[in-house]
Design brief:
- It is built from two helices and eight strands; from the N terminus they run E-H-E-E-E-E-H-E-E-E.
- It is mainly beta.
- The protein has helices at 14-23, 84-93, and strands at 6-10, 27-34, 39-45, 55-61, 77-81, 97-104, 111-116, 122-127.
- The chain is 15% helix and 39% strand.
- The strands form two sheets. Strands 1-4-3-2 form a four-stranded mixed β-sheet, covered by helices on one side.
- It has one domain: Roll (2,3-Dihydroxybiphenyl 1,2-Dioxygenase, domain 1), CATH 3.10.180.10.
Length: 134
């Protein structure tokens, strides 16, 4: 049996990207500078990741000054939060882009919102109950 470890995305401005994911409640878990390869890896997750949750790996390629093509196959990340309105307001206050305000999903009761990180990656915010369900 395997373990889902992380999802990697390339970012244009590492500091901006890290600040955005911190607005979602994530913490920088570790950072690896690779001068020989001219890149930096930053892994973000929740708490200390003792529960083994999947992480987001931000890859910054030094000297890359043109935006990346996000492609048409990528959908979104999904992050569960206890208070969707507070999370969306923190993202907005931090300069983040809210593309769908909090509200129930069509034909359902699950409350969701959508935001975009500084590189345009879509993140679905899902309001979760105390037991982690939504």
């Amino acid at each position: 049996m395997g373990t889902y470890l992380h999802t990697m995305v390339r970012v244009q401005d590492l500091d901006k990207a890290v600040a955005f994911y911190k607005l979602l409640g994530m913490h920088e878990l570790r950072r690896r500078e690779v001068p020989e390869g001219k890149y930096t890896l930053v892994y973000l997750g929740f708490a200390d990741n003792a529960a083994g949750q999947a992480e987001v790996e931000l890859t910054y390629n030094w000297g890359k000054d043109t935006p990346y093509d996000l492609g048409t196959g990528f959908g979104h990340f999904a992050i569960g939060v206890p208070d969707i309105n507070a999370t969306v307001e923190a993202i907005r206050a931090g300069g983040g882009k809210v593309t769908r305000e909090p509200g129930p999903v069509q034909f359902g009761k699950t409350v969701i919102a959508f935001v975009e990180d500084p590189d345009g990656y879509k993140i679905e915010i899902i309001e979760c109950k105390d037991d982690g369900t939504f």
